[in-house]
């Protein structure tokens, strides 16, 4: 008799036979649909390619969806491996399922999809009616969930997303995202005649930077905000003209580098170094490798107009950046990242990204950015936005899931939120009546050829899901 672990593993290996990088899920979707039809079920796909299949359950119990994405990030570790052509070849090593290193494993989220197939192949009387929902293109901007036909979640009361990749964690909310873009025409004036004038390039670098979702709560300095502080301090000693300023790389990356060129008569280099030393003393705990390089450069013919320069310096001083609020679990709930300042088509451009779970916090941050920027001559626009999954503390689904985890393991689950976008935020936008959780088995190094799936988390995970479904089958209909 095969164990549940073996059965789920076999289903996963079966999924692995068909390549399924993001955007190329059609063949796998067809195979899954065939397999489900072979069980006498009636799967259907929406126009976007998401696959839905209903399983019968106890009459009168709330319709419950179990969901996984069937695309994967195919990280390649060998020159011979071609993601759209080659199957994934899972092997067992030291208690993990992994590959020999030629590609990522795709247990993110094939592990969840395998458990869903297991549920379809192992009917049990103590279950609510189940809807299996296989989404596509999760790894490229949550595309399948975003464009999902609302009919796919119509009537669903509870949704269990299996993309959690950490056994013991129950996610109950995630931040939405707003990309902001601000611009101001860059005007120049002739460089002032300064008999003792000197021009410097000031470059801050060596910061840790990072992802504006995963790392913003780790108290890492933002190179652009630091550069603003340095320039304001220098200005206290002596006026200067700005020749150039830029830094950062993208909306969603914390800037680790920023540069300003200035024309001034004072202070001298060692005075600027003293100012930096004070700033460094404050940030060195979290950004030990931060440094300022000061370089003499040629005196230019023209500089930024005073308006443009003071406008930008004022924005750098007043721009709400970093963590705005935290969830009781300690995870960041709302944040802002000034990610990129650059020059394009005669304009100074600022790109920032807000991540907020709380609609009011999002509004407050947006208004703050708009006001500060407008006062400094910058016009703003929203480039893109996706909704939040607001945490529903003490919801039925969350409470039952935590109890079932405790029953299955004897341990308390970690109930938390995430500061990056998850599929339930889009799914909730299609059906606001749902309660959602995101759970998963233990996966390590996802999106890399070292990706691996801890095998001894399969059986307790399936057991927890079974217990949870059983509890939901008798949960009162609201
Ligand atoms: Zn995933």
TrEMBL record:
Q: Which GO terms describe its biological process?
A: proteolysis
Q: Which GO terms describe its molecular function?
A: metallodipeptidase activity
Q: Name one GO cellular component term.
A: cytosol
Can you say what this protein is called?
Xaa-His dipeptidase
User: Peptidase M20 dimerisation domain: from which residue to which, for each copy?
Assistant: 205-289
